Amino acid sequence: MSHFGRTGPPDIADTYSLLVLNITFRTTADDLFPYFDKYGKVVDIFIPRNRRTGDSRGFAFVRYKYADEAQKAVERLDGKVVDGREITVQFAKYGPNAERIHKGRIIESLPKSRSRSPQRRLPFVSFSLSF
Q1: Could you give the CA distance from residue 128 to residue 125 in angstroms, rounded to a whole number?
Q2: Torsion angle, CA of 13/106/102/29, rounded to 10 degrees?
Q3: CA dihedral 52, 21, 24, 62 (to 10 degrees)
Q4: Neighbours of 23 (CB within 10 A)
Q5: What residues are paired with 129 via a beta bridge?
Q6: pLDDT tens sequence across 64-114
Q7: 130 pLDDT band (50/70/90 cuts)?
Q8: What's the pLDDT tens digit per position in 5-26?
């Protein structure tokens, strides 16, 4: 859920996105906003949710309009205790070479197959035995 309500997503083109790891499952965008707002214009705060349960996945994205404000937030908030947990704040990475996140922790990207074509299968051959 975004900090800015259900009015639709804000325009995030040309923004700088921070990844915030190790937030509690009860931490909301409203809880994070005062920490990040100190360092510049926050465009959006988004906490991904589990599709099935609706529970927080333990991390968030905070978007700033300007790179220097985002950098200042990383420097000042990385390692800060928020809601009883020490958070990690870093610039988010996107694309095929970006790290993947699982249960709030960064995990290595899985190597991708070089081939885009489906695996070749042996043709099915039907035969019958007659005596």
Answers
A1: 10
A2: -50
A3: -80
A4: 22
A5: none
A6: 999 999 999 999 999 999 999 999 999 998 755 555 554 445 555 444 545
A7: low
A8: 555 556 667 889 999 999 999 9
Closest CA to 50 of 103, 100, 117: 103
Read off the tokens for 77: 């908030």
Contacts of 59 (CB under 8 A, 6+ apart): 19, 20, 21, 22, 23, 47, 48, 101, 104
Cα–Cα distance for residue pair 76/95, rounded to 1 Å: 26
Of all helices (H) and strands (E), which one includes residue 46?
A: strand 42-46
- Asked if residues 56 and 29 have their Cβ atoms less than 8 Å apart, the reply is no
Please give the domain boundaries of the chain with CATH numbers for all domains.
16-91 (3.30.70.330)
